[in-house]
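The instructor's notes for this session suggest beginning with a concrete chain rather than abstract definitions. Hand out the sequence below and ask the class to guess, before any prediction is shown, which regions might be ordered.
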Amino acid sequence: MLEPGNNDELPPIPGKRYFTIGEVSELCAVKPHVLRYWEQEFPQLKPVKRRGNRRYYQRQDVLIIRQIRSLLYNDGFTIGGARQKLTGEEARNDVSQSQQIIRQLRGELEEVLKILRR
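After discussion, reveal the predicted structure:
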């Protein structure tokens, strides 16, 4: 996700469930209008919207925003390049999780087979 070196200048993320756009703006050092724009450009970014269309971000959203910020501001990616990189990492994570689930399932099936052979 984010390399620790890029995270040093940003404040720690408090242990809350939801954050307002103002709080996220301060946590990620990005203006609120930029956050709203990034929501349109990055499909991974989906804050919960409640009454009056108010946005509430979760911890995972804040981490994604920090990663986007790092890609754009520190690594020099374009919006399209950052979107592509995030999508590629997402796909790799999905494959990794799928492989882990398959290994776990296979182990459980082998245990069931041992029991049935008794």
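Then share the key points. Strands lie at 19-20, 48-50, 54-57. The chain is about 65% helix and 10% strand.
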